[in-house]
Amino acid sequence: MSMLHASQVDDQPRLTTMPSTGGIMRWVIIATLPGLATMTFFFGLGVVSNVVLAAAFGLGLEALVLRLRQRNLRPLNDASALLTGVLLGASLPPASPWWLIGIGMVAAIVVAKHLYGGLGHNPFNPAMVGYALLLVSFPTYMTLWPTPQSLWPASLGSQIMGSISLEQIDGLSGATPLDAFKHKADEVTASQFWANPPLTRGTLTAWQWISAAWAVGGALLLARRLISWHIPVAMLGSMTAATTLLYLLNPDNASSPWLHLFTGATLFGAFFIATDPVSAATSQRGKLIYGAGIGLLVIVIRTWGGYPDAVAFAVLLMNLCVPLLDIYTVPAATAPQSATGRARP
Q1: Is residue 42 classed exposed, middle or buried when 0-12, 13-18 and 19+ CB atoms within 10 A define those classes?
Q2: 318 or 145: which carries more pLDDT confidence?
Q3: What is the pLDDT of residue 168?
């Protein structure tokens, strides 16, 4: 349902129409297209199959749960299940098997969304709940990204059907830049690693182009005022500050900020995941704290934890803090005014 706001311009009332929930969700999906297109260029049609399968699972599970809850199917029109499928599908290694995508979407739609009451009641980002569950439960499948433009042409069908072996997948995959740096030998310094990295220059270039494409989509969301700048700027700013400090203190073992900012899921997470209006903080001050907390947690987990990307876990951990942030950062209601213009006691 559209929301109407009355405003006063030149003493004449005017109604401005705000986009509906479905309209906002569809615009976010449109904003993902540059990132998805760039991923498809570098990683092949497995990116498309991920998104299509995840979206299909999302719509089917949403309809099933609504029927089980004896609700009508009108909430399908808000496109929230479709967006969850797009976001989870974009997060998975290309051409992930159908059963892996299905398990992730069950966790996202059934557990993270409807067990809490449906859209607007979920405390956690549904797509990241699904992703985190898959990463913990199936780490081998979740870390097998193909080398750029290998395209997996012979294995796409069998991978979607779930019949390809892990040995076949491993033969077509390579380390991401974050993963390669995370697991470099202890005796290898950062400068030595970048002088002779165990991954091709094309891999670095691919991830940088993909990150730039997600930033283009994020700029579209900002331009249409569908998200505010507070969360992405705070997240990226805290990551830049933390990585710069670590690099200055220990340049032999820490990477420069550009690796953390322009590879992996950083920009995707900053614009499309952390800004989820339901599970994020409400006030502007709360959003700044929330975004900064995500950025710091990403760097902490990447540096000392076991996961090289960490965006999903950082978002979910800060989702836990949102109720407290909303209590202490939402401004108190303005005291009602009397006819004289003075605050009533």
Answers
A1: buried
A2: 318
A3: 53
